[in-house]
Structure formats: structure tokens, C-alpha cells
Design goal:
The protein is of the alpha+beta class. The chain contains 8 helices and 18 strands. The strands form 2 sheets. The protein has a 9-stranded antiparallel sheet. Strands 3, 4, 9, 10, 11, 12, 13, 15 and 16 form a 9-stranded antiparallel sheet that branches. α2 crosses α8.
């Protein structure tokens, strides 16, 4: 039962110990891993096993939670519908002006340098009387198609989120990934209408992934672009798959941060972000998830044939998500992170409104809307 599992999580937190509790998209199972001590472990290579939590800045260390204990429980997917767009949430006039100024600065940089795209974000601070447990349950109820999580380490902090974007999924040598860009507010019974700006942005992200994976994978397949709904928003998505032929470390280093959360060229966009955003992103637009989780499967499903049952296969599974639509808890204060991709065709006011729409994912959970 979910109640008993969450009680275990609360005891782990009160004991000052790390954990990660999460549900994968469209799944009816909530999983949790506990680390038995409060040691702060960092990823040294991608041969380790555990739950990783990586920052936006790929020069900073990635936290690794050891799966010393693992539990899971069924949690039926809710059919609750999310509400519509609400322009009353999202930030003050001061925040609005600051973000519009930042977007204008980004557009000027794109026109005057080799920068093609840069993802610019902002951070909102609000108060919330809900417990982390209640917030996590609200995310589970409201966003069945997202990766919903609650992550805690006493030496790092507490984060929760509901992200629609997978960075990387692989089982042994087979992999899947996606490019996700473009944003339109969901309106009941209406398909999204995409403009040149969104289509170009999606093309840039897909081309980046293709280039980043070149020489590292074989049999790369790219599916047609499609619309995908995430809460009250539409996005453009392109799925890619194939077979790995190099180490996972070289692939993740090449992909992260992607143009969907950073820009292009990657290093130039990252430099602009770190120099011009007026707050540290920390783990926002980083990635998180299972790294090298092992599963054992028998080759024979006939229990009467015990000889064949002795032959089993061990599979290694990795599933990493981009940390979007997230919040950080700091005592009574909650920090909410939102952003959007900027190109030469961007309109600063529209970019502000896009961040307001994206902020709904978390703000509705915080304020019971």
C-alpha cells in the first residue's frame, strides 16, 4: 500500500538518510530506494549502479544514491484531468520585466554571435504549507504521463518534480532517447498549431542528438515528429533508438546538457546561461534516474522443465530523465524552476507567457488549483 510505503519514506527522512521515491510514466507502480547511511557519494563512471541526480552544469559532480534497500507498491493511475491555463500565476511585474530583458539579451546574442539557440529560465519563490509527502501524492494524481519523483539527501536538499522528457533509456546494448521542444497550451478538443519557431527549435534538438550519437551507436532509427501532451501543455517530440557501441559515459557526456535545456552550440549557450541568469540552476535541467539496475530473467517459462530454468539472463537497465517541471524545498519556502528555448524568431512577451504556462505544473500542486 502507498500509505505504508510513504510512512517508510518519512521514517528514512526523519533518520537523516537519503532516498528517492518515484513513478515512471504511465506505470502503476511506485518505487523507492533507501541508502543506509548519510554518505554523500558521487558518480565516478557509468559502470556503477544506483539512483543518479545530476546538475545542469556538467562540470559539477553527480550525486549517486546507493540502492541499499528497495521497495515498491502498486498505485493505480488516476484519470483526473488537469485544469486549463491560468494567467494569474507565474510571477510579479518585476519578474516579468527581468525575464523579458533576459530574453531580449539572448536574442541579441543570437543575432550577433555564433549562438543559434539558448534556453533561458527563471526561478520563483513561494510558500507552501503542504508536506513533501502530500506534494508527491499530488504529483502522482495529476501527472500520470510524467516521471514523478521525490528525492532527498540531508547534505544536498529536497527536490520534487514531474518531468515529461527522457534523456536516455537502455537495456544492455539497446537504447531509446528523444528530442522534446516547442510548447503550446493545451485546449480541450484542439490540436496544437506549430509555428516556424517551434518547428525549427525541434529540428535543432533532433540534429544535435543525431550528431552527438554519431560513431557511438549503430542502427540509429528516427521516428516521425509527433505531438505529445504533458499536463496542460503540448510539446513536439521525436523518438530515436538504436544499439550502443561505446561506453555509456561518453554518450551521456555528449548529450548532456541537450539543446532542449541549454542551447546550441552547447558550450557557447552554457557560458551565456551561467553568465546571465541571475540564480544558480543547481539540479534544474540536470538529469536523474536509475543507472545500471539489474534484473534476472529465466529463459524458460515452463516450471516443469527445471533443467532449462537453470539458464537465466541478467539484464542491465538505465533510465534517465531530464529534470524539468521541478521544485526545491527549503524549509517553508519552495523554489520553482521554469524556462524556454530562445531563437532568433522568439518574441520576448510570448517567451514570458510560455514560462507562466509551464509554471502551472508545479504551482497548481502547491496551491490546490
Amino acid at each position: 500500500m502507498i500509505v505504508e510505503l510513504l510512512e517508510r519514506v518519512e521514517k528514512q527522512k526523519k533518520a537523516g538518510l537519503p532516498f528517492a521515491i518515484y513513478r515512471k510514466p504511465k506505470k502503476a507502480k511506485v518505487q523507492v530506494i533507501f541508502q543506509k547511511d548519510n554518505g554523500l557519494n558521487y558518480l565516478t563512471d557509468f559502470n556503477e549502479s544506483g539512483f543518479v541526480f545530476a546538475p545542469f552544469d556538467n562540470q559539477m559532480p553527480t550525486v549517486l544514491l546507493r540502492p541499499d534497500a528497495q521497495f515498491e507498491t502498486e498505485y493505480p493511475i488516476s484519470n483526473k484531468k488537469t485544469g486549463g491555463f491560468n494567467t494569474t500565476v507565474g510571477g510579479s511585474d518585476t519578474h516579468k520585466k527581468a525575464h523579458i530583458d533576459l530574453v531580449e539579451k539572448g536574442i541579441a546574442a543570437i543575432k550577433g554571435t555564433e549562438l543559434k539557440k539558448v534556453v533561458l529560465s527563471r526561478r520563483l519563490s513561494t510558500v507552501c504549507e503542504k508536506s513533501a509527502t502530500d506534494l508527491f501524492r499530488a504529483l502522482l494524481e495529476r501527472y500520470p504521463n510524467a516521471f514523478c519523483y521525490w528525492w532527498h539527501h540531508p547534505k544536498v536538499g529536497t527536490w520534487l518534480g514531474a518531468t515529461p522528457e527522457i534523456l536516455w533509456e537502455s537495456e544492455n546494448k539497446q537504447f531509446k532517447t528523444m528530442s522534446l521542444a516547442g510548447t503550446r497550451v493545451f485546449i480541450e478538443n484542439q490540436e496544437p498549431q506549430w509555428g516556424t519557431k517551434e518547428l525549427r527549435e525541434q529540428e535543432l534538438v533532433t540534429d544535435f542528438i543525431k550528431t552527438a550519437l554519431a560513431q557511438k551507436v549503430t542502427g540509429l532509427k528516427i521516428r516521425p515528429m509527433e505531438n505529445v501532451r504533458a499536463g496542460n501543455l503540448w510539446h513536439l517530440r521525436t523518438k530515436l533508438s538504436g544499439r550502443i557501441k561505446t561506453g555509456l559515459n561518453t554518450i551521456i557526456e555528449a548529450l548532456h546538457p541537450t539543446p532542449a535545456v541549454c542551447g546550441m552550440p552547447k558550450n557557447l549557450a552554457k557560458e551565456f546561461i551561467l553568465s546571465n541568469e541571475d540564480y544558480p540552476r543547481e539540479f534544474y535541467t540536470g538529469y536523474l534516474g536509475e543507472l545500471n539496475f539489474k534484473s534476472v530473467r529465466g529463459r524458460n517459462t515452463n516450471r516443469k522443465n527445471q533443467e532449462n530454468n537453470a539458464y537465466k539472463t541478467v539484464k542491465s537497465h538505465t533510465e534517465l530523465y531530464v529534470n524539468l517541471r521541478c521544485m526545491q524545498l527549503r524549509e517553508a519556502k519552495v523554489l520553482v524552476y521554469v524556462g524556454g528555448g530562445i531563437t532568433e524568431a522568439s518574441d520576448p512577451l510570448s517567451e514570458w507567457e510560455e514560462t507562466v504556462a509551464k509554471s502551472e505544473t508545479i504551482l497548481k500542486v502547491l496551491h490546490n488549483e
